[in-house]
Design goal:
Layout (H helix, E strand, L loop, with lengths): L17 H9 L4 H17 L12 H11 L4 H17 L1 H4 L8 H9 E5 L8 E8 L10 H18 L5 E7 L5 H4 L4 H14 L4 E7 L5 H8 L5 H4 L2 E4 L2 H4 L19 H14 L1 H10 L3 E2 L4 E2 L8
Parallel strand pairs: 2-3, 3-4, 4-5
Antiparallel strand pairs: 1-2, 6-7
Helix pairs in contact: 2-3, 3-7, 4-9, 6-7
Protein name: Retinol-binding protein pinta-like isoform X2
GO cellular component, one term: membrane
InterPro entries: CRAL-TRIO_dom, CRAL-TRIO_dom_sf, CRAL/TRIO_N_dom_sf
């Protein structure tokens, strides 16, 4: 089902869907506080000489409400992070351009060599479960970390347009199929920029990272990724030698079928999101071309993006 080019995302008519409403309650947001804070942010945007006053493809107040959710309902944090959202298109052009799973080789390779499943059911406390692994029987040389990064920014953009339904992410990383060849594929400079800036542009809260089926090369994996993670996230990483200890943190019913849980299989969850990213292409193209730094004096998109501002 293709999306119409002129489709504009906005607040759903009538009451908000349960998970989206529950997320706001968990963060202490009320209709009144949302009106007040979003109003302040709209004015703040107008006062910025190089940030756009409107967003293509999405109602500004709805997007800001979701961005407020992503920033733990903290207005000052939004003001700190939002400029990076607009600057990201020039800071990470390799990731933020042509995020199309049908034509972009990096994305095609990423989808075909990995499985990333976002479980639709929200766990207690507004937590969302994601499970990631390298597909068995695929060549490590085909693996594309850049394609994964493109996919992750698409997920974040879609949540900001459609409504965020969780407060925190619980990530289960199944490393049973990881090989040194996968690690060799990571462009370290880009990886550093991605962790530094993309995580600021999309400040998704990670509650825990659970590593299951740790391989013999686990220490190599950790040496590579730990320096990129903030100290508080490093403290939230748990390595499980046995599957049973994972279940002390993640009830089995939420896990994909492949692991004996009640959620759809990992491949089904993976393909659902691949299709979503295909269906919403017109919006991602608007994000890439229009959601960026502008020069309000001349009203043209600025090529001079000052990252340090």
């Amino acid at each position: 089902m293709g999306m119409m080019l002129d489709h504009v995302y906005g607040r759903p008519k009538g009451p908000l869907p349960d998970d989206i409403a529950a997320t706001r309650r968990l963060l202490g947001m009320t209709d009144e506080s949302i009106r007040r804070d979003v109003g302040e942010l709209i004015q703040w945007l107008r006062d910025q000489p190089n940030l756009p006053n409107t967003l293509d493809g999405v109602e500004l107040d709805w997007w800001l409400e979701n961005y407020l959710v992503m920033n733990k309902n903290d207005v000052e944090r939004v003001k700190d992070n939002m400029p990076v959202y607009f600057q990201l298109k020039t800071i990470l052009p390799e990731v933020m351009t042509n995020r199309d799973p049908k034509t972009e080789k990096e994305m095609i390779n990423a989808y075909n060599t990995t499985l990333l499943g976002l479980v639709p059911t929200i766990m207690d406390g507004g937590r969302k479960l994601a499970v990631y692994m390298h597909r068995p029987d695929t060549a490590a040389s085909d693996y594309s970390p850049v394609g994964i990064a493109m996919h992750l920014t698409c997920l974040a953009d879609l949540y900001l347009a459609q409504g965020i339904d969780h407060t925190r992410l619980v990530l289960v990383v199944d490393l049973r199929t990881v090989r040194l060849g996968h690690l060799a594929r990571y462009p370290l400079g880009l990886l550093r920029r991605f962790f530094l800036y993309a995580w600021k542009a999309y400040p998704e809260r990670v509650a825990q990272i659970h590593i299951i089926n740790p391989p013999a090369i686990l220490s190599v994996v950790m040496t590579m990724f730990k320096p990129l993670l903030k100290a508080k996230i490093r403290k939230r990483m748990i390595v499980h030698r046995h599957f049973e200890t994972l279940l002390e943190h993640v009830p089995l019913k939420y896990m994909p079928k492949d692991y004996g849980g009640e959620s759809p299989s990992l491949i089904e969850l993976h393909e659902t999101w691949r299709q979503k990213v295909i269906d919403h292409q017109p919006y991602f193209k608007k994000c890439s071309t229009k959601h960026r730094v502008v020069d309000k004096k001349t009203n043209v998109e600025s090529s001079e993006n000052n990252v340090s501002s």
